[in-house]
Every structure is written in C-alpha cells, then in structure tokens.
Amino acid sequence: MPSSYAPLAATGTFALIAWVIAIPLAGAAILLLGGRRTNRFGHLLGCAASVGSFVLGAVLFFALLGKPGDQRSYDQHVYTWVPVPGFSADAGFHLDQLSIIFVLLITGVGSLIHIYSVGYMAHDEQRRKFFAYLNLFLAAMLVLVLADNYLLLYAGWEGVGLASYLLIGFWQHKPSAAVAAKKAFIVNRVGDVGLSLAVMLMYTTFGSFAFGPVFNGVSGAKTGTLTAIGLLLLLGACGKSAQFPLQSWLGDAMEGPTPVSALIHAATMVTAGVYLIVRSNAIFDAAPNARLVVTIVGAVTLMLGAIIGCAKDDIKKALAGSTMSQIGYMVLAAGLGPIGYVFAIMHLVTHGFFKAGLFLGAGSVMHGMNDDVNMRHYGALRKFMPWTYVTFGLGYLAIIGCPPFSGYWSKDKIIEAAFSQGGTSGWILGCTTLLGALITAFYMTRVMLMTFFGQKRWVADEQGHEPHPHESPWVMVVPMAVLAVGSVAAGALFSYHSAFVNWLEPVTGHSDGRLPFSDALLQVITLAVVALGVAYAWSLYGRQEVPAQAPAGAFATRAARRDLYGDAFNELVFMRTGQYLTRVLVYFDLKGVDGAVNGIAAGLGGSSGRLRRLQTGFVRSYALSMFGGATLLIAALLLVRG
Amino acid sequence: MNPANYLYLSAILFTLGALGVLIRRNAIVVFMCIELMLNAANLAFVTFARMRGALDGQIIAFFTMVVAAAEVVVGLAIIIMVFRTRRSASVDDANLLKY
Amino acid sequence: MSGFPYLTVTIASPLLGVAGIALLPRGAQKRAREIAVATSLITLVLAIVDAVKFNVGGAQYQLTESHTWISQFHIDYSVGVDGIALVLILMTAVLVPVVLLASWNDGKNTPRAFFALMLVLEVMMIGVFAATDVFLFYVLFEALLIPSYFLIGSYGKSGEKHRSYAAVKFLLYNLLGGLLMLAAVIGLYVVANRTVADPFDFPTLAHAVATGQLHFSTGVERWLFLGFFIAFAVKAPLWPFHTWLPDAAAEATPGTAVLLVGVLDKIGTFGMLRFCLELFPSASHYFTPVILVLAVISTIYGALLAIGQRDMKRLIAYTSISHFGLITLGVFAWTARGQVGATLYMVNHGLSTGALFLLAGFLISRRGSTEIDAYGGVQKVAPVLAGTFLLAGLSSLALPGLSSFVSEFLVLVGTFEKYPVAAIFAVTSIVLAAVYILWLYQRTMTGPVTAAVSGFKDLTRRELAAVVPLLALILVLGFAPGILTKYINPAVTQSTSLQVTTTPPPSIAAQAQGSDQ
C-alpha cells in the first residue's frame, strides 16, 4: 500500500520546483512576444530553456535520491490561484518519485528533440515560433505532472492540448494540418469534459480537489462516487492518450512536424492519461469497477492500434498506430491496480525512449526522401543512412520486446501482471497482451523491412526532384543516438534490483501477483510469439518484393487502412448529425423564434392599419361617435345605479 | 311655475343643438348649434341652482359663458380662415386630417 | 456619505468630453475622436481611483452619495458601489477607451455625434451600475436605449434598411422589457411604502427583505419578480428572448457591438444578481428550476447556432448568448462559487468577446465582408492579426491560463454543487465552444492564402494599442483572478441572498481536513 499522502514543505533545493516550469515558460514568452527580433537566436534560446529545465530537474532528482524513501514527497505553495470562499485553488506544486520521473522524461526527451529540431526545422522560416510552441508545451506538461491539485493539473492538461493544437497545425497553410489540429483539440475537449466533471465531483465529495484531501478522504467516500470519479478521469485519459473511443485524432495529428510527433504524440503528452490514472491510484484502488473499465479500454485500444499499425503505408501513421497500442498496454497495466501501476510507468518511460527514437528516425528518413512519408516509396535505405538505420533498428528491437532491450523488460512485466490478475479476466487480458506482442512484432518488422531493406522503390516528388537519401546532420543524429542508448539500456537499468519498483512503491504501492503458471514458461511463450510475428512479417515483406503501389487488400486490410472506420463512424454519427442539427436550429431560430417575434410585430402592424381607417376626417362622424359614446356611458351609469 | 319645465326646455334645446351639429354641414351653423348646446347646459345649471337654492350653478353658468365667448373668438377666426383659403365653409370639405 | 463625490465625478466625467466635442468648430470634426479617447482615459483613471478608495472588507456599499431628487415619492439620486458593481464599472471604463480607439474610422460623416453618443453611453453605463436607488436604476436602464438606438441605427454596416430594422428590433424588445420592469418598480414601491421608510433605496429594501420587515405575499412577489426578471432576461439575453442580439450586433459597428454585448447585456445579469435575488428571494427560489432550464438551453442553443453561422459577427453574438446562459446559471446556482464565478464571467466575457469583436472588426475593415467564407489563409499575410485573434478566441473557449477559464469553472462547480444535472448539460458547451472558435479560426485564418486576402496589412499600431490592453488583461486575470475576486468575494458573501440559503457542506470535507493535518 502507498503510504498516506503527507508531503513535506519544499525548502532549500526543493524550492527550485517552480523554476523547472518557469524557465521554459519564460522562453516561450520571450520568443512569442519578441517577434521577429528573436528570429536569429530563437532556436538557441528554446534549446537553452529546455536544457536548463532538465538540469534543474536532474538537481531535484539527485536531491530526492539523497533522502530516505519516506521523505521524497514535497509540496511547494506558490500563490493562491483562485481565492473564492470555500474554493481555494492553489498554484502549488508537488514533487515526488512519480512526478520526478516525468520531469526527467519530459525535459530530457524534450531537450533532445529541441536539439534535433534545430536541424530538422533549419529551413523553416517560422522556426522561432516552433521553438516557442515547444517551450510552451514543456511548461504546460510540467505543470500537468507537477501540480498538487486537480484543477492546476487540468490547466496543464488543457495547456498541452493547446500546444498540441498549435504544433499539429504548425503548417497552417496546409488545410489538412489545420483540420487535424482542430480535430485533435475538439476530441481532447470531449475528454476534458470528463476530467472537469471529475474535478467537480471531487470538489462536492471531498470539499477540495487538492491531492491531499482527495487521497486521504477516499476511505470515507462511497464506492459509487469513486467509481464515477474514476470513470470520468478515464474519459479524460482517453481523450489525451488517444484511447478507445477517443482515439481518432492521433493518426491525423501526424500532420505536425515530425519532432512534434516524437515529443508530444509519442513520448510525453499522449502518456498524460496514464499519469492521471496512476496519480489517482488512491481513487482507482477503491473503485474496482472503474479499474475493470480501464483495463477493457486499454485492451481494446491495444488491439485497435496494433491492427491499424499493420496496414498503414505512411510511416508516421504506422508509428502512430503503434503508439496507441503501446499506450493501450500502459492503460491496461494501470487498470490492473497495484500489480500494474509501476510497470505502466516503466513501460511509459522506456516507450518514451524508443518511440521518440523511432519517430526521430522516421523524421530523418523523411528528411532524406523529400518529405515523402509513404513506405512503399522507400527501400534499401540502410546503406544511405547508416546512423538512422542503426538507431532506428535499436528502437525496433526495443519495441518488439527483444531481450535485453528496454521494451523487453517493461512489456514482459505487463504481460506477466495481466496473467497474474487471475481468473477469467486475467486469462483474457493476458492473451490480449500476448496477441498484441505478436502484432507489434509483425508491424514493426514490416516498417523496418519496407524502409531499410529490399530494393529501391524511390519516386520523384511532384516537382520532379529525385530523392537523394543522405545521412542527416549531426544535430539530428546525436539526439537519435542518445535515445537509442536509452532504448537499449533503460529497461535493464530499471530492473536492476527492482530499482524502479522500489523507487515508485511509496507513491503507487505495489503488490506482486501470482502467475497461474511458471515465469519461465511465460518468457518462452512471449519470445516465441514475438519470433512468430517477425517471421511472418519477413515472409511477406522480406522474402518477396514490396509493391510500390498498395495492393487492394482484403477487407480487414482496407478497414485497418481507414482506422477501422473510426473516422467514418464519427463522421456519420457526430459530424453529420451535428451539421444537420445546427442547420435545423439555425432555421428554427430564424423562422421559429424570430419568426414568432416578427409575426407578432406584423400582426400588430396589420391590425392597426385596419383600425386607422376609422379616422375618416369627417368631423361630423367623429361628433356622432362622441355622442354615441356619451349616450352609452350615461346608459351604463344609469344601469349600474338603477 | 314648475322649474322642471325649464329642464325640459333645456333638454329640447340641447337635442336640437346636437342634431344640428350632426346634420348640418355649414361650419357657421354647426358653430351656432354648439352655442345652442352650451346655452342649454347653462339653462340647466341655472335651473338647478334655483331648485337647490344654491349659487353654484349660477357661477358655473358664468364660467361657461366666458369659455363660450373665448371659443367664439377662436372658432370664428378659424372658420373665416378656412373659408378664405378654400371658398367653402362646409365641414365635410375640410377632411384632410385623416389616416 | 460625506467627502468628495468620487462616484458622481466618475459617472459625469465623460460629459466633459461631450461638451468638448460640442464646442468643436465645424472644420475640426475629426478632433472629436482624440477628445473622446482622452476623456475616456480620464474616466478610466477615475474608476481606478474609485477602486483604490474602495475599502475591501469594509461596508457592503461604499463611496455612497445621496441627494433628494423627487421627495414626494422618496426618489433620490443615490449612488454607491459594492464589489460587484465596482468591477463592472472598471470593466466599462477599460472597454470604452479601447472601443473608441478601435472605432477611429467609424462614425461616417458625423464623427462628432458618434463619439459624443459613445461618451453619453458611458455615462449611463457607469451610472446604471452605480445606482443604488431603484428608480434611478430604472431611469438609466431605459435611458441607455436612446444612445444605443442611434449608435446601431445611424452607424455600422451599410444597408440602411436592415440596419434600421435591427435598431428598431433592439429598441422594441428592450422597451417591452423595460415596461414590465416599470410596472414591477411601481408595484414594489406601493408594497414597500407601507412598511419601509425609504422605499426606493436598494440597500434599505434588501435589508428589510432579509429581516422580514418587508414581506410580500407569495403571488405579489412572484409577479414582481417576473417583471424584473423578464426585463433582465431580455437584456441579457436569455433564450428565447435573444433574437435581437445577433441582428443588432451584426448591424452595428464593431465598437458599438462590443459595448452592446460587453457592457449593456451585463446590466441584465447584474440586475438578476442584485435585484431579483435580493429583493425576491423566495420567488427566485420558486422560479430557479425554470430559469436553470432556460439557462442551459441558452448555453447549448447559443453554441450550436454559433457553429451554424456564416457571418462572423453573428457568430460572435451567438457565442455570447451561450456565455450568458452560463452566467445566468452561475447567478441562480445559489452558491458563492457560482455567483463569484458569474460576476467574474461578466468581466471576462466583456474582455474576451470585446477583443474578439474588435479583431473581427479589423479583419472586416480590410475586406469589407462579414462572411466567413470570404476569408482564408490570413495567418500567412497578417500573423499578428491571426495570433491575437486566436488568443481572444481561446479565451472565449475558456482555456486555462486565460481569464474566462476561472470564471467558467467556478460557475460550473458552483452549479454542480446544487444542480449537478444542469451542470452536466452545461459542461458540453466546452466542446461546442472549441468547435465554433477553432472552426472559425480554421476557415478564416488557415489554409492557402486566397486572392482577396493576399493584400492584407497586419495590425496597425492604433489597432494594436486597442487590443493589446484587453489581451494583457485576459492573461493577467487568467493567472491572477485574485485581483478581482478580492472585490467580488465580500460583495457576494455580504449579499443577503446567500445568507438566506446556506450551501450544503461537502459531505466529507470536514473529515478530510481533519486527517489532512
């Protein structure tokens, strides 16, 4: 069980927490307000802010490391954000073992991607703005993971949504990018409805939405309420982490520049949902039904993403499908409760390394191939881009779970935890994760083979430029190499003497499940399954030549290419009916509400037009009516009196 | 003599005046009929004063006379102006002030 | 009571500019705008002085003045502010100079009259918030219609016919509401005159109602409540009394539209908060369910209609209807959170919708069309215009870090405490808000540069000077709403309406706090 939530006051070194956020925020502010004047050094300032934040994060990490296990939780109160009677929302930060992992991941991977972007965006005239947005993203994401209450977390949550919107739509002149950005924001907002309702429900239940009162008050709350809060939090997590049924935006989000896809839509922002669930472990521990739904959502998305990843020819969309699927793993693990929380986070971190590396590799490939994203136009690139090939290959080995690379350690634990759940649900979840591992091995091998192996299938772009693949400049290669090191070593490092589990246990709690069969057997099965996936992919894409035109494909392939009709469903159910509804309402407002008003006006006008005809201009007729009226009055008086 | 007879006379005079206002078209005649109605009212006032032995009615009759005199001054002036501009004193011809 | 008449000076200060403009020689008509901007800045300074003089934590109504006006009916010229009125006056004083600066080239052939009318409008707007005499409030409430009618009807979009249609519609709608209010004011006087010494003085009345000294029979109270409420609901506007707003806002100049939507409509919600709740508490409780339903309908209906609009200014007008639904929800939530949120929302909505209207106006002035489809790709040629537009839009969709978020969340939380179902329905508006704002941005600003847009100039210095203060305030109030809640909190807690009803305490708050220590 996690120890009760009782953070210490942040003094000394720990007073630096706010600065971790302030530095990138200041960077973004300078670059956005400074305008063109900062064009010259904008990218450098952006990188400096990110690295500075990372350094502070590292200082905080080592300071935490120097404390005993029960003294690694600190609260820093900055100021009261919304001072209203009975509702005091603080701008306050909470640093503990969980948030520091995120701080290091965000600023670490973030810094590498900042550096990579210096090269990647070198020819973009708006590079300064790009770095401003990246810094803004870092600041918002750090607020999200460092907040000490759910309202501030929500602010960060929406802040990363904004950064994501700005960065997906960075090339606004492309209509597809603008639409994708809008779609991402709106779908996220659907999730945000859940999160904001969860915060409200917390407020009415616990009288506060700060972590302390909420976590410590769980024992006194009704299970039904906690389940409701849990499900609402899950809805929020689904939006941000592209989980079923709010998964549709992630594929389109690949319209953004590739570093964005690597940082936001692979390594950090999309994993915020997992953070939310793990952070709220006190609530989920007390609401088993909510946890069950979490595992179901995770399992469904795991399969959905994997299937979509198999069919995409667009390298980034294939990787996006993979991201969905891997986050499905994390969500599933988080839904398992104390058996899985730690491994969800561990997979999140290792995934952060290898998926960011894979995306950066994809960006490097695109860089050399005239920004073509279609893998059917690649092939044989390993000779032309050796560094990209090696780093991408290491990331590939990590993601399919090949020992001893990072993914093996974390994914294997999730599969183990799923089986340990016990009962029918344990078997179902366990088999799903195994099947996921199979498909992961298949589609990643497919990506690898189509891109780096086989024959050249290069085609000229619209302007007729033949691609001349070349290795990317060192500013891009170095971050890829560093991430590759992470993909290789992180998992083993974390698992050494269960370092990761011991580190996180005070926050999330941890219990070892009991496998229904031997550990070794599971290892063997998992490896066999992975090998099967690789072999099948090789038989399809390695042994025979890949056609440059996509074949029509079976029904399943066509469905997967269209994201299993997720978009079609949304369009039919929400967009069409929504458009119809607004059109009907506009008509109703014009003809119904306004029509009624104008109708009354017209009626009044018409009847007065008729009435005025009585005014004939003949004095004698007026006199007659006066006499008539007077007579009537007198008669009436006499009647009443008499 | 029974004062009620004065009231009957007053009613007859008033009715004659009212009929004249309604039926005649010549503005001068209509005007005279209005005077007739006013004087019928005056007669009634004076009769009532006499019957009740109070002076109120008499005083009101004086007021009426003053008002009637003022009215004659203004009214006749208007009628003459109308006649000058349109060579007619018929009230039906002056019907421009309508819807 | 004693001392320098700060409020009266603030209220009357724009008249200085009106006099200045009136004295201008015929040849120097264009000087009117400089005079107007300078005067409104003086008013802003005076309003800030009022805020400084206001003693937070002191009496509920401060800076009060009272002079007998019509002694037979106990009608006084009495003014005074509580925190709620004070922040609304501050908002008005901020918006007017900004609007005048943005309207530099509006006013057509008669700029003198245009700017003078704007200043007269400011006098009345500040006066209506400051009035503590019910009759004075009513008189100013109605008198506001005169300058606004001329501002809508004489200036703005070309096309005389539709413009005068909009102006007349605005006038008739509001006159009808005002008439009902007049009847209610008279009724209130008749009843109050029996037991209350000063039957038009609002603080006295509110106190008398709270202490039971002034008691209405159930039927009378409900009718009086309806008289006031319908007048305010037309003003605010609440569904289904809203159709005048899109017409008026679309036909008026952007500057007039800002004052119309940003300030004038707030008088409606301000009136609900002050008059309806405090004078007729039990009737307000009785009608709360109906009003909540109307507010929720307004919120969702306004948002859906905004999505369906093709005209930029009509779109923004409909977003306001949606926001007014939320404000009304907060007012009638009967919680401190809801009412503080509603008051804060009034200010924030003025700032963000004001900025949005002005920026849409700048956009329209470059192309001459209000149709959304006439634009596209503006961000490429005018990035600052697009950026500021997006920022104002994001504030309108209540993004955290920008001012509207705090108020919207407070309103929703405050409602959720007592009426969770209404809150759940209203929360859907945050998705709809994202749709209408971002779709508007997508259609006008992004995509390939269209031919019509390619010659656009970015914002000029004057235009920047108009919107930057608003955007800066939006940011500052997003991070530090405490600047305003300092004034609003005591006003809401001192307000008698909340003392009658106590909010149910969160179920296990006490226990959680106990174990927290």
Question: Major sheet of chain C: size, sense and barrel closure?
Answer: 2 strands, antiparallel
The count of domains of chain C is 1
Strand order of the largest sheet of chain A: 1-2-3
- Please provide the count of β strands of chain A: 3
Provide the helix percentage of chain A: over 70%
Overall shape of chain C = globular
Enzyme class (chain C): oxidoreductase
Main location (chain C): membrane
Keywords (chain C): Membrane, NAD, Oxidoreductase, Translocase, Transmembrane, Transmembrane helix
GO molecular function (chain C): NADH dehydrogenase (ubiquinone) activity; NADH dehydrogenase activity; ubiquinone binding
List the topology elements.
The complex is a heterotrimer of chains A (642), B (99) and C (517).
Chain A (H helix, E strand, L loop, with lengths): L7 E2 L7 H18 L7 H24 L8 E11 L2 E9 L1 H24 L6 H20 L3 H19 L6 H32 L4 H7 L5 H18 L7 H5 L5 H10 L4 H8 L1 H5 L2 H24 L3 H21 L5 H28 L17 H15 L5 H15 L2 H30 L21 H22 L3 H10 L10 H24 L12 H7 L4 H46 L7 H23 L1
Parallel strand pairs in A: 1-2
Antiparallel strand pairs in A: 2-3
Helix pairs in contact in A: 1-2, 1-4, 2-3, 2-4, 3-4, 3-10, 3-15, 3-19, 4-5, 5-6, 6-8, 8-11, 8-13, 10-15, 11-14, 13-14, 13-18, 13-22, 14-15, 14-17, 14-18, 15-16, 15-17, 15-19, 15-20, 16-18, 16-19, 17-18, 17-19, 18-21
Chain B lengths: L3 H20 L3 H26 L3 H31 L13
Chain C lengths: L5 H17 L8 H23 L8 E9 L4 E7 L1 H20 L8 H20 L3 H10 L1 H10 L5 H36 L6 H10 L6 H18 L8 H8 L2 H26 L1 H28 L3 H20 L4 H32 L10 H4 L1 H14 L6 H16 L1 H8 L1 H17 L15 H19 L2 H13 L1 H5 L8 H8 L1
Antiparallel strand pairs in C: 1-2
Helix pairs in contact in C: 1-2, 1-4, 2-3, 2-4, 3-4, 3-11, 3-14, 3-20, 3-21, 4-5, 4-6, 4-11, 5-7, 6-7, 7-9, 7-10, 9-11, 9-12, 10-11, 10-13, 11-12, 11-13, 11-14, 12-13, 12-18, 12-19, 13-14, 13-17, 13-19, 14-16, 14-17, 14-20, 14-21, 16-19, 16-20, 17-18, 17-20
What would you say about this model in short?
Chain B: Belongs to the complex I subunit 4L family. Chain A has helices spanning 17-34, 42-65, 97-120, 127-146, 150-168, 175-206, 211-217, 223-240, 248-252, 258-267, 272-279, 281-285, 288-311, 315-335, 341-368, 386-400, 406-420, 423-452, 474-495, 499-508, 519-542, 555-561, 566-611, 619-641; strands spanning 8-9, 74-84, 87-95.
